[in-house]
Amino acid sequence: MATIELKHEISPEEEMLSVFERNEETSEPQTQKLRETPEDIKQEAIINSLAFHPKEDILAAGDVDGDIYLYRYSCNDGENKELWSSGHHLKSCRKVAFTSDGEKLFSVSKDKAVHIMDVVAGKLVKRIPKAHSKPINALLLVDENVVATGDDEGTLKVWDMRKSTSFMSLKHHEDYISDIVADPAKRTLLTSSGDGTMGVINLKKRRFELLSEIQDGDLTSVSIMKHGRKVVCGSSEGMLYIFNWNGFGATSDRFALQAETVDCIVPITDSILCTGSMDGVIRAVNILPNRVVGSVGQHIGEPVEEIACSWDKRFLASCAHDQLIKFWDISGLFAMRVNDYRQQKKKDGRLKALSNKAFGGVGDFFSGLLDVNEPNRTEDSDEEDDGESERD
Questions:
Q1: Please, which pLDDT band fits residue 339 given cuts at 50, 70 and 90?
Q2: Which of 68, 76, 262, 306 has its CA 20 to 30 A from that of 180?
Q3: Beta-bridge partners for 74
Q4: What is the span of the domain harbouring residue 284?
Q5: Number of domains in the chain
Q6: pTM for this predicted structure
């Protein structure tokens, strides 16, 4: 005898309740905390160099033991992840840099070698041993085939990586090369050095052109600002030296920060750069008009080794002698405008906090902007530059 099934008609209320029950079963517990910045990354040794991947939330770090680490970072609590580590360098890794496509990672070391790692596999794909006769300190990837390196005794080499050979070797500095930059056209290389000078190299003609006048202290870093019209060098004496493009012989302006040193600089916008110093403070500085606009963050009492800006310009990463990699929110710097008139110092002498993680963190990024601290500076005459009034 056939069994007759009774069909139960589902009411709209029951159907809605069933949907809620299914959602509850499939949904994950909402326990994950979203942070303003990624968590600090604790290292076993002091980090010398940082580099952000050009397209993804990935950070590379090289330490004093010669190890290289690759991390995926996230603002989700607990989701920073080490992707791989490499111990191929025999001595301190001093600089790391990604290729423009993000597929390879270059590194240079005190062991005088240049290494190239496969980013996905975490494997060494090329090694140039004894690339210099002295420890290598500076690295710049000019394009996908051309790489520049600088060593502890002032020698600059430019390499054709298709052949793994250098086609230019220049000894124009008397002390270590601290930093190298290239103009957007890839025609000119600029080098900063511990001998207090900036070097100018014509890359297309493959020749050294000139040295700047000797400045006070070591020149620790170099960056191109103001749509390519200005070059800024940091100094171990806490000074920023500003050069006009095509006027590299002598500075057009100089700006003393209230910091013992300027050990590293990174451009954030065309007018604002960030500096790292021995006092552990990371400052945001506007160039022309020259003004410290505030503190991005700090490593309390620990010298800052290097700072780097993320691919999406949202974060600044910093490393210091506290063996921490820290992340700072710099997104507000892009909307900042500094008025071109002299401002009064704050009576308490403190820097304006530009993020909630900086000392004296604020909820309103722009509150009190007109009261920010202004260090002493030397004055030059005003000149017109490409239709824009600036102090040259």
A1: confident
A2: 68
A3: none
A4: 41-391
A5: 1
A6: 0.83
